[in-house]
From TrEMBL, chains A, B:
Entry-linked InterPro entries: aa-tRNA-synt_IIb, aa-tRNA-synth_II, aa-tRNA-synth_II/BPL/LPL, Anticodon-bd, Anticodon-bd_dom_sf, Pro-tRNA-ligase_IIa, Pro-tRNA-ligase_IIa_arc-type, Pro-tRNA_ligase_II_C
Catalytic activity field: tRNA(Pro) + L-proline + ATP = L-prolyl-tRNA(Pro) + AMP + diphosphate
Domain Aminoacyl-transfer RNA synthetases class-II family profile intervals: 106-354
UniProtKB keywords: Aminoacyl-tRNA synthetase, ATP-binding, Ligase, Nucleotide-binding, Signal
Enzyme class: ligase
Assigned EC number: 6.1.1.15
GO molecular function: ATP binding; proline-tRNA ligase activity
Signal peptide: 1-22
Organism: Salvia divinorum (Maria pastora)
Cited SMART domains: ProRS-C_1
Gene name in the database record: OVA6
Name of the protein described by the UniProt record: proline--tRNA ligase
Length: 556, 556
C-alpha cells in the first residue's frame, strides 16, 4: 500500500530519470571524485592552515579589545541549516560542538574530549557485551610484514591501494617494508597458527581496541579518515556452523547497540558478493539512514570461512586426530559510528545526542537578575546537580557568569544535551525546577513546576531521559520507513534513488548488473535485509525468480 | 646507623672495586651492546620462527599420539629458577603464564588476554584518577609530519635515532615523510596553538591512551618494545608554578598507584639533567627496584617549561592583554609497568600478582576421588564461586576434569593468582573450605576450616586479599631497603654497584662526571629522591658541598 503510493512519483518523472540515465559517468564521477565541494567540506581534505576558533572558547563580552573583530565575526557565524547544506551543517556541528578537529596530516582527525567521550560510552557498552559473549581483549602489533598482506588474494587486492608503509626504522632502510595495519586478519592468523593445536583450543575468541590506517582519498571527519579508532573481534572455530553462529551473534550485538544505545534503527542484513569484505565468505552489516537519506555502513561482521586459515596454515587437530583448517570470523565498529549519530539525530540547532551515549545527559542552568537572588539560585542549582550526579546521571552545572541564560540554552542545545533544567528565583521559592527536552523545541518541550525533592526529581529526570531515548528512535524509524521505497523494476529503482530514497526490491541479477546500477545511479546494494517479505518474487532487473529483496541506496 | 653498617663491605673489598674500575669499557659496553645474552633473551630480538606452545593449552594426557613427543618435551620444561637466571626466568614466565608473545616484526609484542587484563586493571584505576584531577581523554593522530619533530632542538636529538617513518601512502611516495608517533608533544602543541586564545582557556588538561613506536635495538617483552601502549597526559598552564604543581601532582598519582595498586615501593624523585626527557625542563620519575636489583623507570612526569610552546608558538592572552607562551607538562605510564610487576613480585614458582591488579584474584579448585563425591564437591565449589563473584571478587572455578588438583595448584601459582580455595568431600560435609596464599608457600600459607557461609567467607577472602596486597608491598620494601647503600665516596659507590645494589650519596658534580660514572660502573643517576636526609652533605665525587643525595643504579 505504502509501496504503491511511493511508486507513483516515478511514473510522473520518467523524463528526469531518463536524463539521469543519460549521464552515467557524471553520476559515477560525483560519487568517486567529488569535483564540487562546499568550502567547509573541502577543508578536511587539505591541511588546515586557518585556525578555527570556536565562540565557546572565549567569551567576547570581556575579551581584550584587540581580539574583538575576530570574535565578532565568529559570533555572527552560525551553524549552516541542515536543510540548506547537509555537509556544511555536519562539518559546522563537528567544529562548534568541539567533537573533532583536523590533524596536520591530510585526512587525519583529532578527536576532542566531547567527541571522545561519546566513543568511551560506545566502548563501555560494547566491552561488556563482548565479555558477556565470551571474548577477551588483547593487543596485536600494528606493524605487519608486507608479505602477510599478500597471502590472501582478495585481501591484498582490496587493501593494497590504501596502505601506509613504513620503510625506514631507526635511521635505516628496512629489508621488508611494513604495513601500518588497515585491519588485522593477517597478523591475527599468524599468531593463531602458533596458539591453536587441538579442538580443545577452540573456539578462540578475542577482541582488540586499536587504531587503524587506510590511505583514503576522500575523507570526512568520523565517517572516513586516514586513521580511525575501532574494535576488531577475531575468532576461530572448529566448524563452519559455529563460525556462522558467531558472525550472526556479533551483528546482533551491533544491531541491539544501534537500536538501544544509539537510537539508530539500522537495517541488518547480508552484503552482496560485490560488497563483501576483502577476504570474507559472507559479510553481515548494519546500515543506517542518515538525515540526508544516504546510507552509512555502521558495523560489519564477517564469516571468513577458511580463507585466512588456508592462507596462513591455521590448523587444529579434530576429535578424530585429523588436521583441519579453522573457521573464522571478524567484526568491527569504529569511530565512524559517531558520524552516524550526528547525521541521524541532529537538526538545524545542532547536535542531538541519545541519552544513553551522551557525555552530558542533563545541563543545569541557573537564572537570576538581582544580586540578592544569586545565592539562592546557585545553591539550589548546585544541590540539584549533586542529587542527579549521586543518582548516576551525567549532569553539568553551567554557572559561568559571563554568559546569559539564553546563550547557554543555545549552546547546550547545539551540543546536543538531551535535557536542560532551568532554575530561577521563583522556582527556588516554589521548590521546583523547569525541565526542557532537546528533541522538542520551544514551549512544547518545556515542563514547569517539577519538584526539587530528590527522589521525585531523580525519578522524573530518569523517566524523561528514557522518553527522549525512545522518541529519538521512533523519529528515526518513521523517517527511515517513509524513505524506503518498494520497487519492482529498474526504472522504479532509478526513480527512488533520484529522489534520494532507498529502493527495496527483489534481486537475483549478476555482479555485472549490480555494478551497472552503481554506475548509472550511484546506488549500491546496501544489503539483503534479514527481514524479507513473504511470497514469490521476480528480480527487478531481469524478471527472473528472486529469493530475496535487496536494498539499494547511495551511501557514505 | 644502617648506612654505617651497609658501608662496611665496601671497605673490605676495595681491591675488587679497583679491578672493576680498570675495565671501564667492558662495563659500558655490557650495558649498551649486550654482547652476551641467554638463549631465551636473544629470542625476542630475532624474528620468532619456532613456535612456543604452552603446556596449558593442550592437556598431554589425552593428546592424540602424534603430538605426544613435543608435548612431553614441554611438560619437562619448567620455569628457569629466578635465582639461576633472572632474564630466562622472566621470559619463561611471560611465555608460560601467557602474558605475551613475540610479534612477527623484530621487537614487537603481542599482549595476550591474561597480560592485557593486567593493563586493563591499570587503565581502570588511572582513568578514574586522571578524571578526578580534571583531565579529559581525547585522541591525536599517530602520524606526525617530520618537520614537527625538528622544531624542538633537544627533542629531535633525543628521538630521531628511534623513529619509524612512513614514506609511502596509497601507493605513492609522500612529499613529506611521516613519523609514527614516538610521543605526542609536537602534534599536541600544534593543536593547542589552535585551541588556546586567552587565559580563560587554561589550564587545558588532556590525556590519551595510545600506542607509540620507538625503534629500539635491544628489546625485551613489556620492558622495551618497538611498539608499546601507554597513556600520555598533556597540559598547558598560565604560569610556571601551575605547571610545576601539575607535574608534581601527576608523579604523586603514579606513586600512589605504584604503592597501593601494584605494591611496588617506588622511589620518587627528580631526574638529573643528563637523564631528563628530551625537551623537558624537569623530569620527575618513579624508580622501582626489580628482583635482580636493577632499577626500572616505571613512570615519568615532565615539566616542559615553555620549550614546546616557544617552538610551536603556543600562546595565550593574559589578564593584562599581553601574549605569553603557555607552560606545559606531560606524563606517562606504559605497558612497561607490567614488566615491573612481574620482576618485583615473581618467584621461582612463577608470577605473583598484587590482588588489586590481578585478573583472577581467587581460583577455586574442587578435589574429589570417588564418583559419588563429584556432584557434592562441584556443587559446593560452584556456589562458592557465585558467592565471591556476587561480592565483586574476580574468581575462577577450575573444574576441568583432565587435570589433577596438584597440576592445577602449580598452574595457578605460576599464573600468580593471589588466593586458592580448595574444596574436597570432607570440606563439603564440614561446610568449610581451605584457603591458600600464593605469597606464602606450602602449609604455612594454608588455612583449613574456613566457613562456606556467604557473608563470613566473603569477609574472610576480602581480608586475606588485603593481607596479601600489604604483604607484597612490605616484602618489596624490605628488599628495596636492604639493597640501597648510603655512600660517601666514589669508591663506595663503585663497590655498591659492583654488588648489584643501589648507591645513594650526595652529588653536586658535573654532567661529565655523571657520564664517567656511567661508563665506569654501568650505573646512572636514577633520581634525586624527594626524600632527602637532613644535614650538610659533601659530593661523593668532588667533596664540594652538595644540596642533595642522588641514587645511582644499573637499570633496564
Amino acid at each position: 500500500m505504502g509501496a504503491l503510493t511511493l511508486r507513483l512519483p516515478s511514473l510522473t518523472s520518467l523524463s528526469s530519470a531518463a536524463a539521469a540515465a543519460a549521464l552515467p559517468r557524471y553520476h559515477f564521477c560525483r560519487q568517486l571524485c567529488a569535483p564540487l565541494r562546499s568550502v567547509s567540506a573541502a577543508k578536511f581534505s587539505v591541511q588546515s592552515s586557518t585556525v578555527e576558533k570556536e565562540i565557546a572558547a572565549t567569551p567576547p563580552e570581556i575579551e581584550p579589545a584587540s581580539l574583538l573583530p575576530r570574535l565578532q565575526l565568529e559570533k555572527d557565524r552560525v551553524i549552516t541549516p541542515r536543510s540548506q547544506d547537509f555537509n556544511a551543517w555536519y562539518l559546522d556541528i563537528i567544529a562548534k560542538a568541539e567533537l573533532a578537529d583536523y590533524g596536520p596530516v591530510r585526512g587525519t582527525m583529532v578527536i576532542r574530549p566531547y567527541g571522545y567521550a561519546i566513543w568511551e560510552a560506545i566502548q563501555d557498552y560494547l566491552n561488556v557485551k563482548f565479555k558477556e559473549t565470551g571474548h577477551s581483549n588483547m593487543y596485536f602489533p600494528q606493524f605487519i610484514p608486507y608479505s602477510f598482506i599478500e597471502k590472501e588474494a582478495s585481501h591484498v587486492e582490496g587493501f593494497s591501494p590504501e596502505l601506509a608503509l613504513v620503510t625506514v626504522g631507526g635511521g635505516k632502510e628496512l629489508e621488508e617494508k611494513l604495513v601500518v595495519r588497515p585491519t588485522s586478519e593477517t597478523i591475527v592468523n599468524h599468531m593463531f597458527t602458533q596458539w591453536i593445536n587441538s579442538y580443545r583450543d577452540l573456539p578462540l575468541m578475542i577482541n582488540q581496541w586499536a587504531n587503524v590506517t587506510r590511505w583514503e582519498m576522500r575523507t570526512k571527519p568520523f565517517v572516513r579518515t586516514l586513521e580511525f579508532l575501532w574494535q576488531e573481534g577475531h575468532t576461530a572455530h572448529a566448524s563452519l556452523e559455529e563460525a556462522e553462529e558467531e558472525a550472526l551473534q556479533m551483528i546482533d550485538v551491533y544491531t541491539k547497540f544501534a537500536y538501544e544505545q544509539a537510537a539508530i534503527p539500522v537495517v541488518v542484513g547480508r552484503k552482496s558478493k560485490v560488497e563483501t569484505f576483502a577476504g570474507a565468505s559472507k559479510t553481515y552489516t548494519i546500515e543506517a539512514m542518515m538525515g540526508d537519506r544516504k546510507a552509512l555502513q555502521a558495523g560489519t561482521s564477517h564469516n571468513l570461512g577458511q580463507n585466512f586459515s588456508r592462507a596462513f596454515g591455521t590448523q587444529f587437530m579434530d576429535e578424530n586426530g585429523e588436521r583441519q583448517h579453522v573457521w573464522q570470523t571478524s567484526w568491527a565498529i569504529s569511530t565512524r559510528f559517531i558520524g552516524g549519530i550526528i547525521m541521524t539525530h541532529g537538526d538545524d540547532a545542532g547536535l542531538m545526542l541519545p541519552p544513553n551515549l551522551a557525555p552530558i545527559q542533563v545541563v543545569v542552568v541557573p537564572i537570576w537578575k538581582k544580586a540578592d537572588e544569586k545565592a539562592g539560585v546557585l545553591g539550589a542549582s548546585s544541590s540539584v546537580k549533586e542529587t542527579l550526579q549521586a543518582a548516576g546521571i551525567k549532569v553539568k552545572l553551567d554557572d559561568a557568569e559571563q554568559r546569559t541564560p539564553g546563550w547557554k540554552f543555545n549552546f547546550w542545545e547545539m551540543k546536543g544535551v538531551p535535557l536542560r533544567i532551568e532554575i530561577g528565583p521563583r522556582d527556588v521559592s516554589n521548590g521546583s525546577v523547569v525541565v526542557c527536552r532537546r528533541d522538542i523545541p520551544g514551549k512544547q518541550g518545556k515542563v514547569f513546576g517539577i519538584s526539587m525533592e530528590s527522589s521525585s526529581l531523580v525519578a522524573y529526570v530518569k523517566g524523561k531521559l528514557d522518553e527522549v531515548q525512545s522518541s529519538l528512535l521512533e523519529n528515526a524509524k518513521s523517517f527511515r520507513d517513509s524513505n524506503i521505497v518498494d520497487v519492482r523494476s529498474y526504472s522504479e529503482l532509478k526513480e527512488a534513488i533520484a529522489q534520494g530514497k532507498w529502493a527495496r526490491g527483489p534481486w537475483s541479477a549478476s555482479d555485472t548488473e549490480e555494478l551497472k546500477v552503481k554506475e548509472e545511479t550511484g546506488a549500491t546494494i546496501r544489503c539483503f535485509p534479514f527481514e524479507q517479505p513473504e511470497g514469490a518474487k521476480k528480480c527487478l532487473m531481469t524478471g527472473n525468480p528472486a529469493d530475496e529483496v535487496a536494498i539499494f541506496a547511495k551511501s557514505y
